[in-house]
């Protein structure tokens, strides 16, 4: 059972400097149902937030991206209230996790490995400068190779670069940093790999109406995925394991899963 005092200390410190946005962007509180959800980018976070948004009786949104500005976050409450939400048996807490290899590949495709995502230009330029790659020139946008992103993340991880680097962007952050499973006693930890079945269990626990349950099968913000062996080699896999070691260990993902057929 996690230490309540350690949890309280973590909450207090996180409220002061929420580098991983655990009290803000990544948390969602349903007070009427006494439920707290912690979401992680690239683990169906948009789908989860949209469903919880509808479950709270809100209208559908014109654009899926708008859901991230909705909801009630943990940071809206005081320290003692948050500790109660994150530790009391009267509250239901859930989250979802994902194979780090696949999550990193998905984050690359939507955040860095394209020319259309202008919101992450700072991220692309930061990586390009860090690896001495050509930056954008008139009429041309050079893509950042996946292998170079892994090397860049590994270099930041090894150097223990402080907050502000690409490694602290939520899409590339370590799942454990956001979820803090060593402190938060989750009642349900679902897996992206069995999302539909697992999320249905969560919604049934929350007594969701049939029309909400029916939306679980709807795919939102999907990314076409290649088999990881196409993107990774043994060296990149080793670096990924070092970066996300705590995620492989905490959530039981196979370090050799990048090379197996699925």
Structure description:
With 262 residues, the protein is of the alpha/beta class. It has twelve helices and four strands. It has helices spanning 4-16, 45-55, 79-87, 100-112, 121-130, 146-159, 175-179, 195-205, 210-213, 228-231, 234-243, 245-251, and strands at residues 27-30, 35-38, 92-97, 188-191. α6 runs parallel beside α11 (234-243). The longest helix has 14 residues, at 146-159. The protein starts with a helix and ends in an 11-residue tail after the last helix. The mean pLDDT is 88.
Class computed from helices, strands and strand pairing: alpha/beta
Average predicted confidence as pLDDT: 88
Number of helical elements: 12
Report the strand count.
4
Based on CA inertia axes, which overall geometry fits?
globular
- What integer value in Å does the Rg equal? 19 Å
Distance between the termini: 35 Å
Number of domains: 2
What composes the largest sheet? 4 strands, mixed
Uncertain regions spanning at least 5 consecutive residues = none
Strand content: 5-15%
Secondary structure layout:
Layout: H1 4-16, E1 27-30, E2 35-38, H2 45-55, H3 79-87, E3 92-97, H4 100-112, H5 121-130, H6 146-159, H7 175-179, E4 188-191, H8 195-205, H9 210-213, H10 228-231, H11 234-243, H12 245-251
Parallel strand pairs: 2-3, 3-4
Antiparallel strand pairs: 1-2
Task: List the main descriptive attributes of the protein structure presented here.
262 residues, alpha/beta, 2 domains, four-stranded mixed beta sheet, globular
Task: Briefly say what this structure is.
The protein is 42% helix and 7% strand.
């Amino acid at each position: 059972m996690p230490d309540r005092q350690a949890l309280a200390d973590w909450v207090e410190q996180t409220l002061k400097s929420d580098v991983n946005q655990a009290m803000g962007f990544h948390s969602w509180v349903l007070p009427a149902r006494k439920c707290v959800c912690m979401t992680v980018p690239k683990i169906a976070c948009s789908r989860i937030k949209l469903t919880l948004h509808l479950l709270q009786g809100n209208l559908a949104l014109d654009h899926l991206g708008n859901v991230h500005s909705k909801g009630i976050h943990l940071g809206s409450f005081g320290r003692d209230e948050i500790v109660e939400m994150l530790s009391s048996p009267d509250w239901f807490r859930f989250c979802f996790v994902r194979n780090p290899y696949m999550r990193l590949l998905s984050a690359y495709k939507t955040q860095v490995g394209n020319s259309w995502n202008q919101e992450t230009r700072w991220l692309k330029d930061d990586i390009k400068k860090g690896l001495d790659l050509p930056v954008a020139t008139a009429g041309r946008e050079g893509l950042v190779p996946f292998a170079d992103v892994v090397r860049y993340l590994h270099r930041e991880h090894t150097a223990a670069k402080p907050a502000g680097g690409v490694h602290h962007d939520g899409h590339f952050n370590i799942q454990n940093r956001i979820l803090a499973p060593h402190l938060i006693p989750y009642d349900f930890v679902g897996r992206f790999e069995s999302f539909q079945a697992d999320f249905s269990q969560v919604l049934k626990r929350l007594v969701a109406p049939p029309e909400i349950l029916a939306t679980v099968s709807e795919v939102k913000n999907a990314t076409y995925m290649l088999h990881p062996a196409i993107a990774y080699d043994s060296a990149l896999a080793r670096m990924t394991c070092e970066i996300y070691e705590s995620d492989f260990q905490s959530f039981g993902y196979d370090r050799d899963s990048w090379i197996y057929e699925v």
